Amino acid sequence: MRKSIIILTALFLLVFGASRSAGALDPVAPKYLRAFGFLQVVSPLPQSDIAEITSLNSALDGYRLTFKPGDMVQVPIGSYLLKVKMQNNEWVHPIQITPTEFTYVAVPGFGNLKVRTPNPMTDIVELYSEDGSFLKSFPAAQIETIPMGVYHLRVKLGGPASYSMVSKDRVSIFPNATREIVVSF
After folding, report:
1. Which residues does 31 contact at the CB level (< 8 Å), separation at least 6?
2. CA nearest 124: which of 107, 106, 142, 108?
3. 129-138 burial, b if ≥16 CB within 10 A, otherwise e?
4. Where are the domains of the chain?
5. What region, left, alpha or beta, does residue 173 occupy, with left being phi > 0 and alpha being psi -120 to 50 degrees?
6. pLDDT at residue 124 above 70?
7. pLDDT higher for 120 or 89?
8. Is 24-106 assigned to CATH 2.40.10?
9. What is the rounded CA–CA span in Å between residue 105 and residue 81?
10. How far apart are CA 11 and CA 15, in angstroms?
11. pTM
């Protein structure tokens, strides 16, 4: 009895292991559908945003598809670069489409950062990620649209000849909101 359980278990693992090598390929799907996967992109403002994928495979050289976020599209299998154009920003991310699989991509929300300084035309804002790597700099007079998250700010006050530095750690940016920071001497 014990020997038969061990044999049945080994047989089950052998069969299960062999079926896993097929990956997620649906054995019931018609052959013509096995060359495609499905993609859905969700963005904060799907009515005004535009999604576009561009092939990174040499076999699909030049393949490009433009669609509205929220739509499910059928895409040939392969590697792609996904670009989502949102108002005055663009979100770019590589994706992989596999046979008969559904790929879901959620674009992070974006918020605005406004820094008020004594001289916004000459003062410079430097934006750093949470791990301390430099992301971008912009004039304090500008409202910057950035992905939601937590950032560190460094503001250079004064003219180019003599800057004074002010730092602000852990500035949270929330989607569809403007975070306002006031900096003074």
Report:
1. none
2. 142
3. eeeeeeeeee
4. 24-106, 110-182
5. beta
6. yes
7. 120
8. no
9. 12
10. 6
11. 0.59
